[in-house]
Specification:
Elements (H helix, E strand, L loop, with lengths): L3 E6 L6 H16 L3 E6 L24 H10 L3 E5 H6 L11 E4 L1 H9 L4 E3 L1
Parallel strand pairs: 1-2, 1-5, 2-3, 3-4
Length: 121
């Protein structure tokens, strides 16, 4: 059984429910003692942009996105944000929340090539 887990998220502004569920699963993976990486691409990059997660609250039974992300980062989860996707949206590393790192697709490929399971939202 793999000791790692990956969640890719391609939605935030376009579908807050998918962003929320992605971080619910990422937190569950950390709680199951998996080294976990969230890879944000396309619209999903907004999950890691300062001030954006506060806008997403899907309601009970889910915690607000900002809270889920904070819990995930505090527990040691990794957040990688697609660098070309940031650039396409006129965003940069200075726009990112603490705990988020810009990365290219190679970071995702490397993580997955070591046998990590992955789910996508």
């Amino acid at each position: 059984m793999s000791k790692t887990f990956c969640v890719t998220i391609t939605h935030c502004r376009t579908d807050g429910d998918k962003a929320t569920l992605g971080f619910v699963v990422a937190n569950a993976a950390l709680g199951s003692e998996k080294e976990t990486m969230v890879f944000l691409s396309t619209d999903g990059v907004y999950c890691a942009i300062k001030g954006e997660a506060e806008k997403i609250n899907e309601g009970a039974p889910f915690a607000p996105l900002k809270e889920l992300i904070g819990k995930y980062v505090a527990a040691g989860g990794k957040i990688y944000v697609c660098t070309p996707c940031l650039k396409k949206r006129g965003l940069s590393e200075t726009d990112l929340i603490e705990g988020a790192t810009p990365a290219g697709g190679a970071a995702l490929v490397e993580w997955l090539s070591n046998g990590s399971p992955c789910v996508a939202y």
